[in-house]
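Input/output pair, single chain:
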Amino acid sequence: MSNTPRSRPALLRMSSAGLWLAALLMSGATAAIAFPLMKQLGPTLPGFTAYPGEHHRIAAGMVMARVFVACDVLQIVAAVLVLVAGLWSSRRPAPTGLVTRLGWVAIGLAIVLLVGKLAMLDPLMRAELGAFWSAAAAGSLIDAQLHRERFDALHPRASMVMYATAALVLGAIVAWLVGSESRRSAER
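Output:
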């Protein structure tokens, strides 16, 4: 890729999409490490002595809640930068092929999933998780169980949104790479 004004927006777009994908992959990998490790460590949490349940899930959940917030912030920043790159490159229009346009459709869908998750799914999950932690800390076992079950019921949806978002962002990256190579081949 040459250092022409047209290549700078593409570099910003690709690096931002890569950051977005990396944030999703690393948060998933961190959860896959944190929960089994906490179970293996078998912690007893001083703030939850009245709760006879699995303290390792609470400990890992508290860590992961912060990791997922950080992931959300990175996703928002990356999505904004991808859009800025798109606007920047539209100032100097270049012929774009179908594959490149498909990349933009994939990013658009990923943004829709991100906004939907942030606006609808995350508030529900945070409310249930917070209520579970509060009830568990207070030793209210019935309430704790109820909120944990509600949170657990939302979790597969959140995982599916995360997988779909990652697949769409990866699809956009691949489409833009293929589209860029196709355009370069046509220019030769």
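The chain has four helices and no strands. The chain has a mean pLDDT of 91.
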